[in-house]
């Protein structure tokens, strides 16, 4: 059995990258600009539609942020369960004498 992912969503890291890409794509600023321009025009229907779009994009952004945090949690838990922690530099225990050394 191969441990390599077969699709972009076979790993938590790939799913997180996808969610991050979606977060970057959400175009709330563009809609906010359109909303400001439409508020000057007398078309109530267009203004209301832009308000709904703005609201839905805000909700989408919140969900994507929440999904990103959930994927972080899952990745941390997987690393904990399977001892996949990235090897960190060995910690050097410092005694009282090392505090006074310079350089």
Q: Based on DSSP secondary structure assignment, what is the total number of beta strands? A: 0
Strand count, sense and barrel status of the largest sheet are: none
Question: What integer is the average pLDDT?
Answer: 79
Given as residue ranges, the uncertain stretches (5+ residues, pLDDT < 50) are none
Q: From N to C, what is the helix and strand string?
A: HHHH
Q: Helix count, per DSSP?
A: 4
Assess the beta-strand content as a share of residues. under 5%
Helix content: 55-70%
Question: From the helix content, strand content and strand pairing, which structural class follows?
Answer: mainly alpha
Radius of gyration using CA atoms only: 24 Å
Overall morphology: rod-shaped
Task: Please give the alpha-carbon distance between the first and last residues.
Answer: 51 Å
Give a topology summary.
Blueprint: H1 12-25, H2 28-38, H3 44-81, H4 96-99
Helix pairs in contact: 1-3, 2-3
Describe the structure.
With 103 residues, this protein is mainly α. The protein has a domain at 17-80. Helix content is 65%, strand content 0%. It has four helices and no strands. The protein has helices at 12-25, 28-38, 44-81, 96-99. Helix 2 packs antiparallel against helix 3 (44-81). The protein is rod-shaped. The relative contact order is 0.10. The model has no long low-confidence stretch (mean pLDDT 79).
């Amino acid at each position: 059995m191969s441990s390599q992912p077969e699709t972009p969503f076979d790993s938590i890291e790939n799913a997180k990258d996808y969610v991050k890409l979606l977060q970057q794509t959400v175009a709330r600023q563009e809609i906010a600009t359109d909303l400001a321009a439409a508020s000057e025009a007398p078309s109530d229907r267009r203004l209301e539609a832009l308000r709904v779009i703005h609201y839905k994009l805000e909700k989408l952004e919140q969900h994507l942020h929440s999904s990103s945090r959930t994927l972080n949690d899952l990745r941390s838990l997987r690393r904990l369960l399977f001892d996949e922690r990235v090897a960190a530099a060995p910690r050097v225990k410092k005694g009282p004498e090392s505090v006074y050394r310079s350089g």
